[in-house]
Amino acid sequence: MSWKPELIEAGKPKYLALADALEGDIASGRLRYGERLPPQRELAVDLGVTIATITRAIGEAHRRGLVSARAGSGTFIRPPQVEEGLSASLDLSLNTVPAGPAKLFLDDVLLGIATERRAEDILTYQPAIGSERHRRAISRWFERRIGEMRLPDVALTHGTQHGLWACFASLVRPGQAVASEMWTYTGVRRLAASAQARLVGVAMDDEGLRPDDLAAQLARSGARVVICSTTVQNPTTATMSLGRRKEILAVCRRADAIIVEDDIYGRLSDDPLPTLAALDPEQVVYLGSVSKSTSPGLRLGLMVSPPRLSADLQDKLVCLHWTAPTLYAEMFSRLVDSGAADRCVAQHGQEMARRLAVARQHLGMPAIPSLPSYHLWLPIPDMWRLDDIVSDLLLQGLKVSPSTHFLVDDNAPANPHVRVSLGAVENADQLDPAFRIIASVWRSRPRFSGAIV
Fold first, then answer.
1. Per-residue confidence (pLDDT) for residue 85, from 0 to 100
2. Given the DSSP bridges, would you call strands 154-157 and 301-304 parallel, antiparallel or unpaired?
């Protein structure tokens, strides 16, 4: 690039005037985050100053946090400093929901529990699957997703990961194959390794699992358990149409395969389509999440099993936890009974819209998923290697998750993406510098290659 600023000295040393000009051009957008400044000797000639002046100006710009130097590569415009008290690095690699939308609701619930002095009722051992009162209240909240449930088939979990663990323990033997999306969140991969199961990746399109490849993989591997998401799949944000859901069910019926439906974002994204469990409750183990719809610390989930599988699945839950998450269940039951749970989801909907608007402003419409989501799945530009673009973002203070973290089969065809988690910061404004960096990098050419993250 060439850069020849207008220097306004006004009695100040030239190096300070140059640093001020640099700061002004960054603020105006003339210089973008990630751009490389011309070599110091070239700048000195263009501006008619000494190299010593340029060196002092660059040093002052570095002190102000405007630039960063990379050995052998040059001097680059840095992303803006984040607010005091936050990490200097924007970490958008952890997929979570912000706690803010639920804060007032949870404060009120905790205050109510404390003032009623009912600790003895809540903090004693309860049935491992949850008390009948809690299961009824929480089931009622999930009826929008799966319809009416038989209470004996309903169990509370300490989050979806707990339910997935029970499914592996009950339905899978060491050495057996389990099918999942070719990109799946790392918790599934860890559980498969712990259960000594072979995880088989199924090809995906914009709607998630491809029925043709699912049928082929079930026939080839002998897998009789399929783990999948129908709504805002993590990491790809894929959401199945009604027709696709019916196709997946038909493939699994023919193969006599049980489906474990991970519906952690179903209530949060307010998907109007029926879940797999609603379409065929005899074939699907349903896993729902409360934490993803309210606050990440509210570790509570729901497992609804086909009647023939309920006893063993619920027994496996006991192996990991002797008692239900009773305090969390009491808190959420109160949120359901008061209507606050629905209001909390509505608040999250507004917050997701704000954050997606920031992404849309910088990246345009193609990056935005069909349903509201707290994460994005971005294809990288053709000219970039995945490792290089992740390294470049990291050098500019932004951490995202490369698609290789989620890939089930290392030999799968390359289709590199990054996942950007929108819920990892407190508010939408903090995403603006992150998407400025992303947009700048996506428009630029690689500066180096071969970096390893």
1. 37
2. antiparallel
